[in-house]
User: Which sequence fits this backbone?
């Protein structure tokens, strides 16, 4: 069992590894952010954190409050998070791709009292908070004046049960859910990772972990960062995944471990084979979703194993499953078997426990006296959703899996109405809600369609109000309408116009039939491919 806070864990590692590197920013990432390319030892990081602790304390932030951090994968993200944690203030990572509708919701729902954002976003975030009458102090990483709390009253010192972060994850309700994550959640994630063993064995004080995943996700924040923090390793965050320069970054960083999403191996295999393909120090990759047909091909070419794992923001590593030991059953979507610390059920639609080979929903909990150990505490302000997720004493994952006669688990599909594009979870209902605001849209259904590079792409099936002279121009207008209100990756990549949508007797969208319709319409006459419009904002 773990104890204390994330900040206290950092201090313990600092005592062992003062002069070892904690954080390394490569030139390409530094150039993207407009900052210095450099590394920080544990001692140098501690000095940066100490300055921020003083400034946040002087500003009046205290335990039980929340502060938003729109700092991407910059060094400041790590330093501000640890500084806030030392005070018992919860960090709310803010995605820079979010626009007004998303920011308005998260600022209001989280009740954050402060936010640290890029200089170019200060006015926007202030206006957003003002629209909902939320008193929010907004500062930048170099200027925290005004980024303070409104109450300097004494509060209990933070401990293992104190909220450490609030991460928002998309669901089926149209609104992201705020997952309350405690210090215990993060500390157990790092401890679990450090103890995996097998092909994922780590050496104290010598590992270098490179990740392109954002600190707005639990993988980078809870897995990558925490395992390096606990073992005296070095975290190497990239601003994002750059296929053309990926291997140069791997070699320059001297990475021994890297994290991946399923789309990355496919992109990397698209390059011409080179004599330098195996010129690296990587011992293993940690991730999920590699195509079964590409798994073995990648490992043979690049010379290290891709270790498939399963977890969710809600489960953390309290129920993580990983194929870290042979046989890994490459090519079968196998993600390993549960450890003896996890209690799993695979439940069929009629409520039975599935037999080997039979598909069902994965239900999980921690084995022992504390079934929620290592999991999220709750969905913020949504006790009903929290209770439903834990119905029958197990967390209902919404993922369809099966286990084979050996006890190994294999991923099949997602039960929930979530589109997963390049690792981002997108709520179809959320996109529908924005499109319905357009005056020419009578009704709309959003579904996933296959994309050979990104896994899924967003398809909008639109029923219009009356006739339209130029459908292609309107389709473009609808996507641009979404791009102004949502993160770029949530906007439709395809728009198709329909006379009607498949509905139930109660006028709800038949999601299964909609999915079939969307797939049938890819490449059809009335479907417009607008994927080139979906670009990250400069």
Assistant:
């Amino acid at each position: 069992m773990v104890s204390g806070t994330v900040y206290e864990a950092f201090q313990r590692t600092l005592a062992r590894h003062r002069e070892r590197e904690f954080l390394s920013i490569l030139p390409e990432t530094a150039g993207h952010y407009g900052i210095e390319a450099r590394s920080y030892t544990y001692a140098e990081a501690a000095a940066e954190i100490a300055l921020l602790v003083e400034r946040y304390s002087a500003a009046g932030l205290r335990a039980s409050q929340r502060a938003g951090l729109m700092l991407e994968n910059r060094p400041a993200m790590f330093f501000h998070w640890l500084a806030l944690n030392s005070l018992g203030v919860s960090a709310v990572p803010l995605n820079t791709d979010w626009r007004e509708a998303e920011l308005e919701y998260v600022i209001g729902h989280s009740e954050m009292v402060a936010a640290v954002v890029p200089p170019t976003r200060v006015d926007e975030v202030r206006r957003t908070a003002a629209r909902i009458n939320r008193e929010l102090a907004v500062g930048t990483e170099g200027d925290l004046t005004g980024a303070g709390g409104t109450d300097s009253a004494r509060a209990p010192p933070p401990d293992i049960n104190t909220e450490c972060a609030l991460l928002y994850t998309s669901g089926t309700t149209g609104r992201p859910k705020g997952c309350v994550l405690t210090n215990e959640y993060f500390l157990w994630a790092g401890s679990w990772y450090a103890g995996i063993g097998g092909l994922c064995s780590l050496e104290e004080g010598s590992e270098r972990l490179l990740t392109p995943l954002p600190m707005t996700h639990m993988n980078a924040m809870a897995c990558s960062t925490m395992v390096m923090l606990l073992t005296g390793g070095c975290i190497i965050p990239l601003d994002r995944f750059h296929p053309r320069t990926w291997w140069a970054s791997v070699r320059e960083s001297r990475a021994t471990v890297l994290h991946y999403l399923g789309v990355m191996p496919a992109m990397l295999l698209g390059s011409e084979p080179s004599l330098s393909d195996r010129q690296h120090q990587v011992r293993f990759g940690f991730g999920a979703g590699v195509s079964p047909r590409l798994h073995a091909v990648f490992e043979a070419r690049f010379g290290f194993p891709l270790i498939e794992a399963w977890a969710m923001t809600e489960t953390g590593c309290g129920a993580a499953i990983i194929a870290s030991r042979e046989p890994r059953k490459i090519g079968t979507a196998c993600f390993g078997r549960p450890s003896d610390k996890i209690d799993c059920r695979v439940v069929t639609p009629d409520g039975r426990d599935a037999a080997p080979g039979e598909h069902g929903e994965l239900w999980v909990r921690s084995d022992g006296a504390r079934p929620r150990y290592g999991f999220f505490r709750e969905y913020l302000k949504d006790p009903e959703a929290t209770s439903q997720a834990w119905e029958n004493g197990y967390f209902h994952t919404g993922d369809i899996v099966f286990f084979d006669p050996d006890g190994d688990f294999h991923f099949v599909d997602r039960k929930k109405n979530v589109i997963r594009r390049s690792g981002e979870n997108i709520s179809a209902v959320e996109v529908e809600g924005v499109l319905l605001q357009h005056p020419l849209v009578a009704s709309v259904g959003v579904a996933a369609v296959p994309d050979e590079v990104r896994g899924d792409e967003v398809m909008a099936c639109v029923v219009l109000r009356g006739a339209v002279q130029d459908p292609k121009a309107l389709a473009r207008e609808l996507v641009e309408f979404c791009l102004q209100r949502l993160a770029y990756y949530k906007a439709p990549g395809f728009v198709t116009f329909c006379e009607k949508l498949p509905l139930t007797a109660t006028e709800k969208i038949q999601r299964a039939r909609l999915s079939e319709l969307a797939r049938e319409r890819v490449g059809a006459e009335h479907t417009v491919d607008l994927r080139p419009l979906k670009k990250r904002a400069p």
